[in-house]
Amino acid sequence: MEARRLSLLPASMRARSTLIIGSACLIFLAIIGAGIDFLVTDRIEAGVFRDAQRTATNWVGSMAPGQIPRPAPEGRIDLLQLVDDHGRVVMASPAAAGRPPLGTIRPPKDNRIQDGTVCRPGGGCVMFTVIRLPPLDTSEIFGGESHFVYSGTTQPSILAGHRLELVTTTGVLLASALVAWGNWWVGGRALRPVAAIRATMADITVSDLSMRVPEPPGRTEYALLARTANQTLARLEEAVRQQRRFASTTSHELRTPLTGLRARLEEAVLYPGDVDPRQTIRDALTLTQRLETIVEDLLVLARLRSGIPAQHEPVDLAMLVREAIATLPADGVPICVRAQGDITVHGNRVQLVRVLDNLLANARRHAHGKVEVTVGRQGDRAVVAVTDDGDGIAHQDRERVFERFVRLEDGRRREPGGSGLGLAISRDIAHGHDGTLRVEDSPRGARFVLDLPLMDLGDSSPPTSGDPPGVAGFGALPQTPAWRA
Predict the structure, then answer these.
(1) Contact of 74 with 51, CB cutoff 8 Å
(2) Which segments constitute the Histidine kinase domain (predicted)?
(3) pTM here?
(4) pLDDT at 150
(5) Which domains does the chain have, with CATH numbers?
(6) How confident is the model at residue 25 (pLDDT cuts 50, 70, 90)?
(7) Residue 178 pLDDT > 60, yes or no?
(8) Mapped to the 3 state alphabet, what secondary structure does the chain carry?
(9) Higher-confidence residue: 371 or 403?
(10) Do strands 79-84 and 147-154 pair parallel, antiparallel, or not at all (unpaired)?
């Protein structure tokens, strides 16, 4: 039933508001018009009856035994008649001469004055007041026979033929139509920005996201809507641009090992006598392993970018760093750890281990003699700094290394089979934990700093001069002995 009632309304908001406001205005003005009709009719009738009663009373007062003066009209009251008890007209004013009695009302003795309106076909309507002569006058003048004085006038034209109702109804309809038209016009001007936004949005396609909707001036709802739409379009354009760039880069990165794998297999098929099958299989396995690494990293990156929430739990960063170092090969560059106690964050253990593995593996790969890892707090933040003593990263490349598939020349030389996604995944994980991952200045080598919010702020001590840059509070709490892996 509700759906059927709603379906009767127009689909356009402009038409709906016009219909609703016009209907409400019509009802409101109809009530006012009816009240005005009642008040005007009552006021006119009261004035006519008052004048008729005064004129009739004056005529009755001028009567005397044996002397009944001819009635004289007063103002608009021009119809006067003296009627006996049998309904005969005894005397009348010039305008009422030859007419039948103005009415048939015979007031009783206890209510001698009454008002009435009589309408006759073709003769219009007459408003009158009838007065029953007092008993004394009746006895002295007419020998006890009851007589009645009728005093009235033709009904005013404003009341005749429902003219007042017609005028009021016409005024109500015109006023309602004017209000509805005004609402339609104002609604059209108000919705003009929306129509422009809709037209522009209809022209925007996936192949061209550079168009923007027109922004009205000021801070109206339409202006805010247009700005929000343009901001959304800008983000969408940037996301599509990144997606296309990512798809192009991904296809290139996947095409390289696939081309190498196909070349090895075709060579083995075309020249079976010149190619060692075992070596071909080993090369194919190496290329397949690289493909598998790239695909796995892409899946991880896709899950992180999709915003799927991961299960979080309290994680002791110092313990996590030691566990990550313990899983590394023992024949690599030694790692020195300085960890402050009670550094607990709320995060996903598996994802944080992946970040630490990437940072430690990169640091070991580029270090000449050692890697330093510090774990501490800075205000309400937990900070993990991984520093190597290698050649470092040029300032202009410090942000590029976090882009997907970006591998510097030194990285390609030291690890030819890498996917180039490790640091991009690590930064996404840091952002997913409301943290940051960045490259900071270091006297020598590269310094990666992981910054995460502490789960329990506790009491942080002021930094001391012996603390490494970016990590505060090591001098105030008992510090675990430095150890090497």
Answers:
(1) yes
(2) 249-456
(3) 0.47
(4) 95
(5) 14-163 (3.30.450), 221-305 (1.10.287.130), 313-484 (3.30.565.10)
(6) very high
(7) yes
(8) CHHHHHHCCCCCHHHHHHHHHHHHHHHHHHHHHHHHHHHHHHHHHHHHHHHHHHHHHHHHHHCECCECCCCCCECCECEEEEEECCCCEEEECHHHCCCCCCCCCCCCCCCCEEEEEEEECCCEEEEEEEEECCHHHHHHHHCCCCEEEEEEEECCCCCHHHHHHHHHHHHHHHHHHHHHHHHHHHHHHHHHHHHHHHHHHHHCECCECCCCCCCCCCCCHHHHHHHHHHHHHHHHHHHHHHHHHHHHHHHHHHHHHHHHHHHHHHHHHHCCCCCCHHHHHHHHHHHHHHHHHHHHHHHHHHHHHCCCCCCCEEEEHHHHHHHHHHCCCCCCCCEEEEEECCCEEEECHHHHHHHHHHHHHHHHHHCCCCEEEEEEEECCEEEEEEEECCCCCCHHHCCHHHCCCCCCHHHHHHCCCCCCCHHHHHHHHHHHCCCEEEEECCCCCCEEEEEEEECCCCCCCCCCCCCCCCCECCCCCCECCCEEC
(9) 371
(10) antiparallel
Q: Tokens for 253?
A: 């990165």
Residues 232-246 have a mean pLDDT of 79
Token pair belonging to 369: 């003699």
Q: Considering only CA atoms, which of 91, 95, 105, 85 is closest in space to residue 62?
A: 91
pLDDT for 483 equals 42
Which of 47, 40, 60 has the alpha carbon at shortest distance from 115? 47
- What is the mean pLDDT of the segment spanning 272-289? 83
CA separation for the pair 271, 262 (Å, rounded) = 14
